[in-house]
Predict the 3D structure of the following.
Amino acid sequence: MFVTQDIVLRLFFSKKKIINNGSSVPLNASVILAPTHRSRWDGLVITMAMGRRVTNKDCKFMVTNSEMKGIQGWFLKRLGCFSINQLSPSLHTLRYAIDLIVKGEQLVVFPEGKINKYGKKLVLREGLYRLARLATKKTESIIIIPIGIAYSRVSPKFRSEFCLSLGKPIVMKDFLNFNIKEFNEFLNERIINEEKLALKNVGR
């Protein structure tokens, strides 16, 4: 945290802003963070906004296998990331993710499934909803927080700005009658609304 938040983020970005739009979460709730994914900086930004210093909980990131290779993979693992095969997720990985949710940890899942640099409209992946549904069999206190992240430049440069907007939490037990398509359409609208607010705050 000292290296990434107090040195790297502070030196690289000239301005950092966090907007909280009613994102009040019960202390005993299991939290799934659902952010837009526009840059490799997103993980550090989310950790600064919702990590241990703020919530007393670490952020655990679900990322693709390709992102966990080489030096980047070594670094990501130490930031709390674990990989999943999107085409054929293993039972071990699914159990691990569900256990994190049930234990009240903060699981970060990028619903778009990959970096969507220019914010093109994508069909959200099904993983977040499936995990949340499975976890509701063990706990009902699951909260999903839609998050919009924006940078003053499409590809963040030295002394750029960023803004992160936290939306009103979604209580998973209120959406168990939704199918995947209905829920993803609802979630997509929520995270895009938060991103629009974040974009406005960085002048885009």
Q: What stands out?
A: The longest helix spans residues 180-201. Helices lie at 2-12, 42-50, 52-55, 70-78, 91-102, 127-135, 180-201. The mean pLDDT is 90.
